[in-house]
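User: We ran a pulldown and think these components assemble together. Before we commit to crystallization trials, I'd like a predicted model of the whole complex to look at. Sequences follow.
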Amino acid sequence: MQSALSLRLAHRIGPLPLKLAGAAALAVLLAMPALHLWTDPASSLHVSAYTLTLVGKILCYAIVALAMDLVWGYTGLLSLGHGLFFALGGYGMGMYLMRAIGHDGNYQSDLPDFMVFLDWKTLPWFWQGSEHLAWALCLAVGVPGLLALVFGWLAFRSRIKGVYFSIMTQALTYAAMLLFFRNETGFGGNNGFTDFKRILGYGIAEPATRATLFLLTVLLLVAALAAGFWLVNSKFGRILTAIRDAESRLMFCGYNPLYYKLFIWVASAMLCGLAGALYVPQVGIINPGEMSPANSIEIAIWVAVGGRGSLIGPVLGAGFINAAKSWFTVAFPEYWLFFLGALFIATTLFLPRGLLGLLRRHKENA
Amino acid sequence: MQLFKPLLLLLLLYSGLVAASPLAELAHADPADRAGLITQWTVQADGPRRQAVAALEEGRLFSSTDGNHVLLQGVDGKLSDVDNGQPVAGDAASLDTLPVNNSVRSALEAFHAASDLADPERSKRLSAIQALQDSANPGLLPLLLSRQQQEQDSQVKQALLVASSRLQLASPDAAQRLQAIHTLADSADPATQTLLAPLADSASESDARVRAAATQAVADIKASQWRYNMLGYAFSGISLGSVLLLAALGLAITYGLLGVINMAHGEMLMIGAYASYVVQNLFRSWWPGAFDAYLLAALPVAFAVTFVIGMALERLIIRHLYGRPLETLLATWGISLMLIQAVRMLFGAQNVEVANPSWLSGGWVITPALTLPYNRLAIIAFVAGVLLLTWLALNKTRLGLFVRAVTQNRRMADSVGVPTGKVDMLAFGLGSGIAGLGGVALSQIGNVGPELGQGYIVDSFMVVVLGGVGQLAGTVTGAMGLGIVNKILEPSLGAVLGKILILGFIILFIQKRPQGLFALKGRVLD
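Assistant: Here's a predicted model for the assembly, 892 residues in total across the polymer chains.
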C-alpha cells in the first residue's frame, strides 16, 4: 500500500504550482553565484561568501539525501552508513587538495604537513597519483562504490535487511571512523585535511572558485534529480519499490532482488562520494568526525522529514533541517539536540510521509 | 724486632678493642670496607652491632678535628670517644660525620631487611625478602636458608626459596646452581628470566649441564608467561564480555520481542551510571559512615529509574510504531539525543567522578604475572547473578512465559489471550532495567559521561547478531566470544584494527548463519 501512494506521489509531483516553485528555486540558486561575483558588497542583493558556502554545503547534503532516498525511500534499505560514503568522497578530493598545497605548507615539503609531522619520508602507496584531480575524483567515486559493492554483495546475498542491515551499516561507518582517527592510517588522523590553498591552480577562497564550485553543485543536484526521477519511474524503479514492499513476493515472481539492490546501493554510494568531493573544497575541511554514526543517522532524518520516496522531499528536508541547524546552533546551541531529537520522534510518529506528505494531504482535503 | 714491638702491641690492643666494641670496629674501618663489614654483620646481627649500625646511619658518628679519633654523639647530645667511652668536649655541629656512600647505604638496607625477616608482620617479611634478593649478597644465603626452615607461611616460604635460589645462581658449585635453576624455573616470576639468561650462555657459564638446565628453564618460564598472558587476556575478555552482556541482554529481549532496535538502549546504561553517581553523592553528604555500601543502594535505584523510563518509552512512543522497525530505530535515536542533552544540561558535559568503594579496590594476586582486579571480578560475579535472575524471570514466571510466547509468535499468542501490549511494556522495562544495572557496573570500571552509552550500542547489537534472539545462551555466547576475541586481538593488532577485523568476521559469519548462533526454528515468511 505504501508503494502505490508514493508512486502516485512521484507522478503527481508534476502539477503546475510545484513546477513553478521548482523553477523559481532553480533560478534563485543559479543566480546566487552571479550575485556573489558581480554585485557591490554593500548592495542588498549581494550574496556573501558565507551565505554562498552555507548554501553550497546544504546543496551537497541535499544530494546525499537524494541518494539516501533512492535506497531507503524506494528500496526500503535504511542505511546508517551514508555518511561514510560521503566522507570517503571528501577524503578522495581532500587528497588532491592536500597535494595541490605543494610547498606552501608550514614545513615547505613535498609531502602534506601531517606526514612531515609524523616523520614520514615518502608518500604511502595509496597516495600515488593523487596530485591529479582526475584520479582523485576517480578515488572519490570509486572507493565508496567499491566499498558499497563488497559490503552490499555480502549483505544482500545473505538477505540481510531491516534493522539488521541498518545496524551493520552503522557498525561499518563506526569502524571506519575509528580507522581514520588513527594517525598511522595515513589520512591526517584526528585533524583530517585542512588549510587547502588552491584547486587546479585557482585559489580555493577566490570568489570565482567559490562560484564555480557552487554552480557545479547545483548542476549535480539537478542532474541527480533528473536521473533519479527517470530511474524510479522506469520499470527498474518499480522493481525497487516492489523490493521495499514485498520482497518475498517479488522473488516468487522470479526476480532476483540481489542485483537490483546492489545496483541502487552502489549508485547511491557513488553519488554520495561525488557530493563529498564537492563539499570539501567548499567548506575547506574534512575529518573523521564526518563518519560518526550520528551524522549518518541525521541524513535519514533529512529524508524522513522531507518525505520518503519522493526524491524532491529529501532535498527539501536536507535544506530545511540544515538551515534550522545553522540558525539554532547560533541562537540556542543547547536546545539544538532537543529540537533534533523531537524532530526524529515527531516525524516518525505524526509525519510518516514527511512535509511533502503534509502538503499532499492538505491538497487532498481541500 | 724492637721496632715492631710497639706496633704489634698496638695491633693487639686494637684487635682487643675491636672485639670489645663493634662500634669502634665500624668507626675505624676503612671507609671502603665499611659496606663489607656491615654486610658481614647482616648474618650475625646482635644488639651492639645494631646500635653501631644505627649510630652510623643516624649520622651520630663524627671524626675528630685531628682525624685520629671517632666521636659518638649520645642521645643527650654529648660527644664521647668510641674507643674508650671518655667524654670529649666539643660541638658536634662543627665536626664532619662519617660518610655514608651508596654502597654503605645498600648494605644498610640489606642489614635492616635481614632483621625484618623474623618480623611478625607478613608483609614486612615479604618486602624484606625482596630487598635481600635485590642486594645479591651471597653471604646472606645461610640466613635465608635458616629462615626457610622456620617460616610457617607458605607464600613467604616460597619467596624465601626464590630469593635463596637467586643467590645460589652465583654459587661456584655447579650442583647448587643447577638446584637453584630448577627452583626458579618453577617460580614463574617473570624477573627470573633475565637472571637465568647468562647461565644459558656459554660465554658466562662453563658447565654444560647447568647451561642445558638454564636454557630449559628460560623456555619453561617463557611458556608459562605466555600461558599467564593468555589467561590474563581471557580474564579481561570475560570481563569485557560480561559488560557487553549486560548491555546486550535487554537489547536481545526487546529485539526478539518487538523486532525493533532501541537506539536509546545505550542511554539506559548511561542513566544507570549517573544513578550510581547521584546515590554516591547522597551517601557522601548524608551518610559518610556507610559510604562503602552506596553501590548496593545504587543497584535498585538504577534499576527502578531505567525500568520506569523504559516502560514510558514503550507506552508513549514505540507502541505507536509497531510494524515499522526502521522508524522505531529513528525515533529511539531521537530519544537518545534528547536524553544525552538532558543529562549534559543537568550534570555538565564533563565526566563525573564515581569512586570505587574500598572493598572493590585492589586485586587478587595469583602469581607475579597475573593479578585480577577486584572490581572486574565483582562485575563478573554480578553479571552471573543478573543472568541467573533474568533466566529465572524468563523461564520460571508467567511474564517470562508470555514474553517467550510473544517472541515466537505474536499473533498466535495474542489469539490465545496473552496481553501482548502489557507484555511488551514490561519486557521493555525489564530490558531497560538490566541496562541500568549494567550502567552501575560500568561506573566502577570506566568514565561516566553523557556519551557513555553511545559506544555500546554497536557492540551490543553485534552480540545480538552473533548470538541470535530468543535464547539467553546465544546472547551469553555472543558476548563472551566477542569480549574474548576482542581482548586477544588487541595486543597484537591494536584496538581499532581488532574491532574492524571482528566486524569483518561478523559480516562473513552472517553469510553462513543469518539468524545467529542459536536460532529459533520457525516457518514464518512475510
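Residues 1-7 of chain A have pLDDT under 50 and may be disordered. That may be worth checking against your pulldown data before setting up trials.

User: Thanks, that helps.
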